[in-house]
Design a protein that fits this description.
By secondary structure, the protein is an alpha/beta fold. Strand 8 and strand 9 form a beta hairpin. The longest helix is centred in the last third of the chain and has 37 residues. The protein is globular.
């Protein structure tokens, strides 16, 4: 039906309409040619398979050439670059100059070696692009499943809570905040207690990781509120000295609230007397936290697990799946015995985060209620894939083997007159020195020489005031021949450096 003339006039009088959205060229980040991207993606995957399969043919680490480093000082890209060209930059300028911790000769720091299974899971997680802050979706159920497995590993009760984080540094910080929240509640509950408003004080060993002191600083309590208790000859905290320190602070009107034990010190892998610490914490009504970044997962090894006796009594444990469990970075974890205390510490309702009984906004409490992050990646998937694929028994066997290799390295050091042990070998870390005059500077040069050679990658540390070469054996790919190669490289570099020093 033809519109009336007055309608036509009104239409003509309207201002010109903006173009319909459909007429506007819209930006799109999906491929214009899916088949070519598919082919390149398959090539990328095959290249990474080749990289890992042939890793022994490559140097552990190599210095970054100046011209390569300069390439990464370019201005912000404005126009597109072909994906193939970007990938060439990766293969030529990034891949050859990575940290090297996937290599069996990497022994410098406590880095896991990752696995093909974890790499594939990371790819799947990237494609899914799930935000694990909240909502009702299966990725969060995967994280809850891993939390349940962790609870079972450490013998925690039902009702325990857990959360993936970047690493144990953040997990330790979060545990401190939960402990502070718990202590504050107790202070308020104890009416007319003169200590209720007094300063909070925490305790750890002088061998504890530096992130504990940093956590005290970040929490606002301050480093001065952390008591670093001396260690014994095996680098374990002196429990009796700790007990006396707690009592002295309490008598001084302060409020002790936290003991941080260590399951695997960063320098030599020492494990505190966890049962003894648990007893002090129970006597004094303190929160007992364990920094298990290095050694907590020894719980999966039947021959090592007894050395962690007492860990089941902890109030919280920080540890890393990306170390001994060989999950790709990053996959830190915090496990808390009392899930309600954990929830109360971090839960902060907001109108834009409404929780519903049904629909996508159901499923609370959400992971964002257990930590500071609202936006969170799907770290749980690569961990779930790793545990599900290998099983706890095989992962435990890998952990045992790294410790056996450490004992093999200890034996080689003890049998070699030019070398000496710098500390007891308790888990998977061996600290030793090349014997010579001016040993600190020479040993530092030896470590750097070996790193630059590409044969191995040890690190250095200071034990009892003297510098030592440190080998941390974490990678599941490391074999006895890699230990042999490290010793041979140390002797070559040491003899060369020793001759140079003597000539001077």
């Amino acid at each position: 039906m033809k519109p009336s003339s007055h309608v036509e006039e009104r239409i003509e009088e309207r201002p010109a309409r903006p173009r319909a959205v459909a007429d506007i060229e819209e930006p799109n980040l999906d491929p214009a040619d899916w088949s070519s991207v598919r082919a390149l993606g398959h090539r990328m995957l095959d290249d990474m398979f080749d990289y890992l399969q042939d890793i022994r043919r490559r140097p552990v680490w190599q210095p970054i050439p100046d011209d390569v480093r300069t390439k990464f000082r370019e201005p912000l890209p404005v126009k597109p670059t072909a994906l193939g060209a970007v990938y060439r930059d990766f293969t030529n300028s990034i891949l050859p100059f990575s940290t090297g911790n996937v290599h069996p000769g990497f022994m410098g720091w406590v880095h896991g070696g990752g696995s093909v299974v974890g790499m594939l899971a990371e790819m799947l997680a990237g494609g899914l692009n799930a935000n694990l802050g909240g909502r009702d979706h299966m990725p969060i159920e995967v994280e809850r499943q891993v939390t349940e497995w962790a609870r079972q590993m450490f013998g925690f009760p039902e009702g325990a809570s857990g959360l993936f984080v970047t690493g144990s540094s953040i997990a330790n910080f979060m545990a401190l905040l939960v402990a502070r929240h718990s202590a504050s509640k107790r202070c308020v509950a104890v009416q007319n207690d003169v200590r209720a408003g007094s300063g909070l004080v925490a305790y750890t060993s002088s061998a504890a990781h530096g992130c504990i002191a940093k956590a005290m600083y970040m929490s606002g309590l301050g480093r001065a509120a952390l008591r670093c208790i001396p260690v014994d000859a095996m680098h374990r905290v002196q429990v009796d000295t700790l007990r006396r320190a707690v009592e002295a602070d309490r008598n001084a009107g302060l409020t002790p609230f936290l003991i941080v034990g260590t399951a695997g010190t960063v320098d030599i892998g020492a494990i505190d007397d966890l049962s003894g610490l648990a007893a002090v914490a129970a006597e004094q009504h303190l929160w007992f936290h364990i920094d298990g970044a290095l050694g907590a997962l020894a719980i999966l090894s039947p021959d090592l697990a007894p050395r962690l006796q007492g860990i089941e009594r902890a109030d919280s444990i920080a540890f890393d799946f990306h170390k001994w469990a060989q999950v790709p970075y990053d996959a830190g974890f915090l496990l808390v015995r009392d899930g309600q205390q954990h929830l109360e510490t971090f839960s902060s309702p907001a109108e834009y985060l409404r929780r519903e009984a049904r629909g996508l906004a159901a499923g609370s409490p959400w992971p964002c209620d257990l930590g500071p992050d609202l936006s969170r990646g799907f770290r749980a998937l690569k961990t779930w894939f790793t545990i599900k694929t290998y099983g706890s028994e095989q992962l435990g066997a890998v952990i045992s083997h790294t410790c056996a290799l450490a004992q093999y390295l200890r034996q080689l050091v003890e049998q070699t007159p030019e070398l000496e042990l710098a500390a007891p070998v308790q888990l998977n870390i061996v600290c030793f020195r090349y014997r010579c005059d001016g040993s600190d500077s020479v040993n530092a040069e030896i470590a750097a020489d070996i790193q630059e050679s590409g044969v191995a990658a040890p690190s250095t540390t200071t034990i009892d005031g003297r510098l030592a070469i440190r080998a941390a054996i974490v990678n599941h790919r490391t074999k006895a021949r890699d230990i042999d190669a490290l010793i041979a490289a140390v002797l070559r570099a040491g003899r060369k450096r020793h001759r140079v020093t003597a000539a001077r």
